[in-house]
Amino acid sequence: MPKTYSNPVFPYRRSPDQDGGGAHHPVVIVGAGLVGLAAAVDLAQRGVATVVLDDDETVSFGSRAICFSKRTLEICDRLGVGRPMLDKGITWNVGRVFFGERQVYDFDLLPERGHQFPAFVNLQQYYAEEWLVRRAEETGLVDLRWKNRVTAVEAHDEGVTLQVETPDGPYPLACDWLLAADGAKSFVRTALGLDFKGQIFQDRFLIADVVMKADFPTERWFWFDPPFHKGQSALLHKQPDDVWRIDLQLGWDADPNEEKKPEKVIPRLKAMLGEEAEFDLEWISVYTFQCRRLDRFRHGRVLFVGDAAHQVSPFGARGGNGGLQDTDNLCWKLAYVLQGAAPESLLDSYDAERVPATDENILNSTRSTDFITPKNAASRAFRDAVLELSESQAFARSWVNSGRLSKPAVLSGSALNSTAGAGAALPDAPLLKAGEAAWLLPQLGEGFTLMIYGGEGLDTIALSDDRVPIRTLRITSAQEPTIGDALVDADGLVAERLDLAPGQWLLVRPDQHIAARGDSVDLERVRAARDRALGKTTEAPQTARLAG
Amino acid sequence: MAKLKTDPRIADPDGLYEAIIEAHRDLGEAEGQKLDAKLILLLANHIGDAEVVREALAIARDTTEAGPETA
Ligand SMILES: Cc1cc2nc3c(=O)[nH]c(=O)nc-3n(C[C@H](O)[C@H](O)[C@H](O)COP(=O)(O)OP(=O)(O)OC[C@H]3O[C@@H](n4cnc5c(N)ncnc54)[C@H](O)[C@@H]3O)c2cc1C
């Protein structure tokens, strides 16, 4: 049905591994979806070769994720696909909220000055995946095997063995580490007999992408209890290619197969968009949403990422955005473990950091779902009270919850942090590099970075010769004389956003999260903080997990 | 640490009580519930300290027994 996009077909290729001989690889990734592909690229950029198995031969069919957050764009920028996502994606600022017959309010998310990426863009998931495939191929370290379905998994203490089904028949494969990125219905998870616990929302949603022929504003419209769809909710959101995403709540009793029929869908959409609106159906699907997760994301040599590890309802766009934070968190750790530069136990911190982050996502999307679908008379009374008040009372607008957009997790309770004030992803900021406008985050590179505010001070060159090197990045304030090709905080936004005064420093992890901060640079303290972030410290972790 | 003031503070309790009841007149059960909800939201925002509201909530809940219709 899609007309604006035709799925690329990635041909199945026979691998030498299929000719017998017990192939063994350090890392195998199951699933070339958004998250598996991001993991492959991330690991490749760290010099780690992977084999990626996918049972299909193309990217996501139909759009699914459309909202990509700022943090996702920053992560994707590090992976080499952030720019095209921004360029192709739709940046919207105006939102309208309707309740019943009336618009109760609108808002304008005036973009804050000095950010490379907006709070989010709307983009069809298949574009992001297609670009990641291209990027993966470019690295030369990703062996992408389409039409390779994993049909058996055996986990051992020292590795994992797989059975893979292909058009040429099955073959066995063994690896030291397995990344399970095989989506919400994860075969790996089922094969290992792991529980996937949580809540299924007793509701159904019709998700339709339509191509609109006439102009329609680039805004997000959300209806509670609209006249064209009594008692339910509706969302209209713009994507590139003149495609509009429409979410219609259907209720639990709706018959998904009936609801998907064009003769059923078209009248509903006409009621919403107006009788005269001309549109083509691009894609239709009916979903039941759920919030659930694995108890642990690391199971020995098997590491679960993305929807295979956790599933959230789409309110607040936390599925794909959360999944990309998983791989962002995991890949550098796995790379150091593979190099022998960090103990295997570092991988437990993936679990300890991403489980609370997942709980935060689940909490947020559950709250949104409860607001959108009140469960009883009292919750409906409060929901409607908020909406009615919001028309005249600005304060009530902050209580309206049609999805809270994904913010990066703050790993504040992590055992990898050495000091207070660590855990957050480094905020981006504009600066001058050799006199030219540039951004802070792309200066960080793939390893640990010591950021020092203020040009002068201790020689830190020795740190770059360590087994796990630490690069130094000096940023001078606009008041200081510029030395060489130093980075200059011309607008003062680096100091402001990172809360840095002259002489102070930050140690930034390879995933751009802050590991430690300090007042004056002391090489041994910096090294100790790095070692702690590598999981080398034998002391008991301060607080292994954040409370949900 | 209790932040919620629970000593008598309203000069004319009968008058305010009457006004609250009066506001519900002519309203059905659902509308009445919505009115109460708005009142709570307005007052909570006025108080501006979630701790205080949570304390009030705890007292309200503790002094309310689940009825027979509660599952
Ligand atoms: C309607 C809808 C709207 C959404 N909107 C948003 C949004 O706006 N923002 C957002 O961030 N998220 C959103 N999401 C969630 C997002 O789509 C998912 O979180 C994301 O796709 C997860 O990526 P993944 O790589 O973990 O899994 P998937 O994308 O599901 O990829 C799994 C891959 O594994 C392969 N696979 C499965 N089994 C096997 C096997 N046995 N062997 C080999 N390969 C296998 C599959 O073919 C697939 O390619 C939305 C989801 C839906 C349904």
Q: What does it look like?
A:
The complex is a heterodimer of chains A (548) and B (71). Chain A is α+β, with helices and mostly antiparallel strands and 548 residues long. Among the domains of chain A are: 16-90 and 121-196 and 294-346, FAD/NAD(P)-binding domain (3-Layer(bba) Sandwich); 430-533, Glutaredoxin. In chain A, 27% of the residues lie in helices and 27% in strands. Chain A is built from 13 helices and 27 strands. Chain A has helices at 34-45, 70-78, 82-88, 125-139, 187-191, 256-259, 262-273, 319-338, 346-372, 377-392, 394-397, 493-498, 523-533, and strands at residues 24-30, 50-54, 67-69, 94-99, 102-108, 120-122, 142-146, 149-156, 159-165, 171-180, 197-200, 205-212, 219-224, 233-239, 243-249, 279-287, 290-293, 298-299, 302-304, 310-311, 430-433, 436-439, 448-453, 470-477, 487-489, 505-508, 514-518. In chain A, the strands form five sheets. In chain A, strands 1, 2, 7, 8, 9, 10, 18 and 19 form an eight-stranded mixed beta sheet that branches. In chain A, strands 5-4-13-14-15-12-16 form a seven-stranded mixed beta sheet, sandwiched between helices. The longest helix of chain A has 27 residues, at 346-372. The two termini of chain A are 42 Å apart. With 71 residues, chain B is an all-alpha fold. Chain B has a domain at 29-63. In chain B, 62% of the residues lie in helices and 0% in strands. Chain B is built from three helices and no strands. Chain B has helices at residues 13-24, 29-47, 50-62. The longest helix of chain B has 19 residues, at 29-47. Chain B starts with 12 loop residues before the first helix and ends in a 9-residue tail after the last helix. The relative contact order of chain B is 0.12. Bound molecules: flavin-adenine dinucleotide. The site of flavin-adenine dinucleotide (FAD) has 34 residues of chain A, from helix 1, strand 2, strand 8 and helix 8.
